[in-house]
Amino acid sequence: MRNVWLLNFSTFFFFLGTSVVTPVVSPFLVSLNAEPFLVGLVAGVTSFLSLISKPIGGAVGDKGYRFHALVGGNLLGVLAGVLYVLSALTSNVYLFAFARAIHGFSMGIFFPSSLSTAVDLAPVGRVGETLGWRGMMFSLGNIIGPAIGGYASDLIGFSGAFALTAVFSIVGALLALIAWREVGDITVQREEHEKASYRELLRVTFVSASLTLFLFAMSYAGVTTYLPALYKSLSLEQRPFGYYMMVIGTFSFMTRLIGGRSADRRGPLPVTTLGLVLLLIGYLLLNVYTLPPYAYVSAAFIGAGFGLAVPAMQLMALGNLPRRIRTMGSGIYTMFFDLGTLAGQVVLGYVAQVRDYWGVFPVLPLILGGGFITLYAPVVWGKFNAR
Which residues form the Major facilitator superfamily (MFS) profile domain (predicted)? Predict the structure, then answer.
């Protein structure tokens, strides 16, 4: 389990490096007088590059270079942090967009190997629990990162907050190196290498979980991208949204392990359903109470739903995949999160352009509603065919 926890802590610092800029991206662009649609486009660059680099990260991991990908992803995060600082010092939107692209590429390289290695190192019968622990590291990063980023940007400016990305990514790279030295490269049995095929990714559970994740991410992008932009347009500081994300991260952290263990025991479908229901309640409450402090109630429901649904969907998608294609499967699966985030940022950016930032939030429950359809479509279809 020491190796699992080295991996978990590397994951924590990687996501700490990505989340520390979450409450800062949109306000930084607004401070440069960027239009709402441009805010969505620049924010979407990260998702786009993460999307197209996920298959590269998956292929690299399946060739036995998973720890190379973990270290490399963190080092690219260091580079992104340096470019963020330079863009802030020069007030250069294009350099900032390029830095976001580098950061997105680093996510695409890091994420598949991080996820598949957690499955590989999990004890027998405890895959969901291991994914839950890993998810807790993700959530802990989202608890601490936005709060640090929001506070740092108010205290020492945008460049100071951006510099923390590089610092945290360096720590993540060092931890991945230690784990690599202890575990060595993860290899695949020859028999499994010969029998496995990427066609197995077309299984119903994988497709259903991936489509549900797409709609999940599309709706969630409305919160992470346009809520801080709304607060900035109202002349609020960055800290209120940092606290909002801290509440999401706290409740996600509290429910991740519950979600993973419950998915091991009861199956991923009911746990995912409960998570989406809580997320839906959070979106509805956000429309009623959009501004702090009452908005933090919606953040609690969103975080709890996030924590339950994510490890359950991961188990649904990846739990039964052969090891030979698991990294590529992780890459393809998480591509749907990036694709959903990108779609949400661009589409909802158009909504914000037409209806102002306030008009984004009534759309979120409608988008998430489609996730229930993709989640249960295979069940309904199977019962229909059984008649």
Answer: 3-387
Q: Please write the tens of the pLDDT for every residue from 199-215.
A: 778 888 899 999 999 99
- The residue among 163, 185, 207 that closes a domain is 185
Tokens of 206: 């994988």
Phi first, then psi, for residue 242 (nearest 5°) are: -60, -40
Q: What number of residues does the chain have?
A: 387
Distance of alpha carbon 346 from alpha carbon 44, whole angstroms:
7
DSSP state of 29: H
- If asked whether residues 237 and 151 sit together in one domain, one would say no
Up-side HSE of residue 318: CA atoms within 13 Å toward CB? 33
Q: From the CB of residue 297, how many other CB atoms can be counted at a distance below 10 Å? A: 16
What the block records as the tokens of 100 is 């976001």
Looking at residue 1, what is its pLDDT?
A: 60
Say if residues 286 and 223 touch (Cβ distance below 8 Å). Answer: yes
Give residue 359's identity as a one-letter amino acid code: G
Q: Residue 182: what residue type?
A: E
User: Do 236 and 156 lie in a common domain?
Assistant: no
CA distance 351 to 361: 10
Residue 124: phi and psi, rounded to 5, are -60, 130
Residues 166, 17, single domain; the answer is: yes
pTM for this entry: 0.73
pLDDT tens digits along 266-323: 999 999 999 999 999 999 999 999 999 999 999 999 999 999 999 899 889 988 788 7
pLDDT tens, 155-170? 888 898 899 999 999 9
Q: Are 212 and 269 in contact (CB under 8 A)?
A: no
Q: What is the pLDDT of residue 184?
A: 64
Let me know if residue 191 belongs to a domain: no
Closest by CA position to 215, among listed 288, 309, 287: 309
Dihedral, CA of residue 253, residue 346, residue 111 and residue 315, to nearest 10: 60
Residue 133 has pLDDT above 50, yes or no: yes
Instruction: Name the region of 58 (left: φ>0; alpha: ψ -120 to 50; beta: rest).
Output: alpha
